[in-house]
């Protein structure tokens, strides 16, 4: 007779209720989805940018997608520390992301516009979690969100500056 393989998971008691941990993990999953989508968009544009600003945009996109790539682990690992699985497939990210994929290969300045919108959208997703995180007394997630907001707002500012005449 086959037995069902069940894992016994130790109870999590970190001072945040299970309900709040679940809600925070869900919000962080949306942030992870936006972050991954932003990473992929930025990397795609790095590969495909052309035109008179090629060198500077190619380098900027490299800097931004590298930072974004490194942040993905921090977000996913925070979800795991709260006791929930991290989403990790295109299908799961597609359901959760507020950022939509860009079809084709846009012109360089359109790439910059798309990235401004994606950076700002990712910042809004993170910012939307603050009330819940503060009420749950979840300082590690608040710290992570503060760091991510700083990065996304600065990146959006730098990209917007390229668009100014």
TrEMBL record:
One Gene Ontology term of the molecular function aspect: ferric iron binding
Protein name: DNA starvation/stationary phase protection protein
Entry-linked Gene3D superfamilies: 1.20.1260.10
PANTHER family: DNA PROTECTION DURING STARVATION PROTEIN, GENERAL STRESS PROTEIN 20U
Ranges for domain Ferritin/DPS: 26-164
Gene name linked to the record: dps
Cited SUPFAM superfamilies: Ferritin-like (SSF47240)
Entries under InterPro entries matching the protein: DPS_DNA-bd (IPR002177), Ferritin-like (IPR012347), Ferritin-like_SF (IPR009078), Ferritin_DPS_dom (IPR008331)
Family: Belongs to the Dps family.
